[in-house]
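Margin note from the TA: students keep mixing up input and output lines. Inputs are the sequences; the output is the structure of the whole complex. Example:
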Amino acid sequence: MSAREEILARVRRAVAGAEDVEIPRGYRAGRPAEGAVEGLVELFAERVDDYRAVVHVVPAAEVPAKIDACLGGRRVIVPDGFGRAGGWDDLDTADGVVTTCAVAIAETGTIVLDHGPGQGTRAQTLVPDYHLCVVRADQIVAGVPEAVARLDPARPLTWISGPSATSDIELNRVEGVHGPRTLEVIIST
Amino acid sequence: MSATFLGMPGNFPENSRKAVHDSQLRFNLRKATHTIRGKRASVVGELPDWQELRAAGKAIKEHTLRNLDRYLIRLEAAVTAAGGTVHWARDAAEANRIVTGLVKATGETEVVKVKSMATQEIELNQALAEQGITAYETDLAELIVQLGDDFPSHILVPAIHRNRSEIREIFLDRMPGVSPDLTDDPPALAEAARLHLRERFLRSKVAISGANFMVAETGTLVVLESEGNGRMCLTLPETLISVVGIEKLLPSWRDLEVFLQLLPRSSTGERMNPYTSMWTGAVEGQDFHLVLLDNGRTDVLADEVGRQALRCIRCSACLNVCPVYERAGGHAYGSVYPGPIGAILTPQLRGMSSELDASLPYASSLCGACYEVCPVAIDIPEVLVDLRAKAPHAAAERAGMKVAGWIFNDHRRLARAQRAATRLRKLVPKRLPGPLSAWTDTRDVPEIPEESFRDWWERNERA
């Protein structure tokens, strides 16, 4: 018997006669997104800031200027579809990367990349030491269930909550290990 | 790491006796577990629906385990359709053979690894080393353990038994090219690890990971981490091999909405861990292999009481809250799975034929704090008591229990025994002799009353 057949047979023997259960889903889900409710931008900004990331809340028209100000003289990767001219091509020598995102979660201060247009490849948002992410207010949802519902599992997804960190030394969070050590977020309203 | 847990001598009481005399260890553990307890309590308290999430998490896992065959087949189909290759491993040896073969086929002699309990359980690093393949751990705590030629002592933070100055010493002694001016400031230690591993990440062609979750419906694998070493390993190498226990399955994509709330808050006490990677099959040109591991899990599944241990999502909240773990530390458990969850998982996965494994169900005061904090409501005390009944017992103990059972089984026999005890009460010593002294060294012998309640009741009812 192949390993596959044997494991499946063992599973069937093990659970034969066991009762199935109903899954209660009494937790919060399906809450409205920013636009329909007030306060999600503020909550998201506060929660991102808790991770010691830098947050700017800026009217849409002022976003390009704000990006310039944030980037300063950095050599920055600008992914296809971001809609900004210029950009550095070499991953190994880039100082940073600027991207959009797929969805953002207010309650946990999380941004999620699905690596679609404007978001770069997984390596482009990982290797450089600085990540600037532009979040549109209408991309901010209340919590994790609302974000999962918006995402496409067929795409590679990267959930980012603050800069790279570790809790491995005495269980305290220390920022800055292998991923970008500086995370900056512009919320476009 | 070169150290191995299998065949470790001793038993839990002996191991923990040594551990509690290590004052540095006790200080480190107390500090770390109390820090994380506070953080967990605060972020769990923020969610008004925590108990609802916990109930859902428990039920999703129960339902998955009940239908595990169906969901495994579904997962296999989804991963294959997305360009991945699925392998099945009955036990550790088979899993190690598969992974070693896959690495050899690439022609590489080095692999980078993301922290994974499953590959520790099967001792993959040793199996690779025997075939001339070097595995580099990239998680900071795993790196500390590997460089220190040490054992992991915690599920989430394997180097929890080390404080910052001990970590500095290990880095200075064992990390090639480290600056001699390294301080014990945690950011400086993290920076040293970053520099040490940077080149290795960019150069490695093969990575090995585990996974926190696998979604049957979509074939998606999920890895939660903090440092970015996971992202490095999962995305940069050309070949990715993931070794995952068959119980890590979730039926549907939607189920992640529950577990991505339960796990980070329970494990690191954060609203969300810094990085979570999700991928479905072969992504961005990568070659992807999934090795599904049984290694005793189907035996656990067959046990009606013990199977709930398979709901575990390896958050380690039970370790952090356990009064026994806090004092004894992880090494005393002699397994990659220490603490309360280890005390029920290890004896079920490995059996109770060794003295160490048979002692694990007793590594608890049955206080129940582990059950309270468990995000998937595993009733650890219930399983511990059940395993105690199944563990081998000494002939004298079995005979004693048999006599006690015979007496308790009949109310007339019980009444006669109570009257006999009452008559002899003055003769019972405060400290019991021989092996029974192990009990009275730390506890008082219960006082025998002048009259049993049954006799008192009889007398007063008649009056």
